[in-house]
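anyone seen this seq b4? input:
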Amino acid sequence: MQKIARKLFNELKKHLDSREISLIVGPRQSGKTTLMLELKSFLEQKGDRAVLLNLDFESDKVFFESQANMLKKLDLEFGTNKGYVFIDEIQRKENAGLFLKGLYDLNLPYKFIVSGSGSLELKEKIHESLAGRKRMFELGTVSFEEFVDFKTEYRYRGKLEEFFRLENDKTEAFLVEYLNFGGYPRVILEQEISEKIKIINEIFRSYIEKDIAYLLNIDRVDAFGMLVRILASQPGQIIKYSKLAQEIGIAVATVKNYLWYAERTFSVKIIKPFFKNHRKEITKSPVAYFYDMGLLNFSIGLFGNLSQPEQLGFVFQNFVANRLGEKIQYTAQNLGYWRTLGGAEVDFILSDSRTVLPVEVKYAKLKEAKVTVSLRNFIEKYNPKEAWVVNLSLKAEIKIRKTVVKFIPFYEMR
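predicted toks r here
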């Protein structure tokens, strides 16, 4: 079976020559181990020496009992020669940041490539302990472009945008499939829908029972699962903490705590409101979107069963949120949303200290370039240089005052 090529592979390959630790983080089962094995194979084909240690393997755990044990193992493998050390599931190691910091500071001739699923240990303590000693790489689930490349057997690699423009029906079919099943590699590789359901069920249970219950020591696992399901039933809607707390049967402070956990374990993305007028605009309540559409759909019993435009529209908005997040990942821009107390709303706002870009999302094959009242209100209030209306097919431009409103097919978002 053909593998799914990941864009992050080339970025990691370039970083192999850097002494910094390459730290790969991301959702459980997003493909981190597979990516590490591919990097290891690449190095060995070049004649370099590499070893992979996995904290999920009992036989490897002895090497993590102390730095002395790890040094003996690496000396056995490489001696004083250059070597590449792959460490998987590092979140299993207590005080992992200090453990890696001590090894790094010995100036050994070894390059460390480390991965682990999202947990507080990875996102917080390791980040602090390894300040100036690591570069973090985030591997999400398979992107839409990676998915289409795989589905088309890489015939259009490097030419996907042209494929999307010319092959409208195929592009829409791929989009609907992706919106239904999401981007977990094992789900994509499985052909049978019944097996896809079993896989996403196992991923969801593994996330709740391991990342949440074991790693984060949450006592009410059922309450956390209920929170995830409620958020999935209303993606992009304003989070009302007191209502959530009442529905789940937990305190408001616990709801906020669980949301913090959910974001740091790559389950949901919390997006805060954009505002400048404290009196007329919503200033505090965030909204939540999911890292993966398959997990979102599974949480509400619609995995593989989205067919109505309204259902697909909600998930498409989540899809665009993820694409915008990718766009600004290595920039100083923030992703927010805009809503007024009077009911005007714009789905997304990209902003930094100098610029603001409103983005509306329409799951439709628009025929003409029409602007909603809400977007027009935002334009009149903030005079942005550009505004976007992301849709399925229409590419056009109109001008409102000094603002260029661009109607952009989703696959041309840059």
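The chain has a mean pLDDT of 92. Residues 8-138 form a domain with the Rossmann fold fold (CATH 3.40.50.300). kinda curious what u guys think
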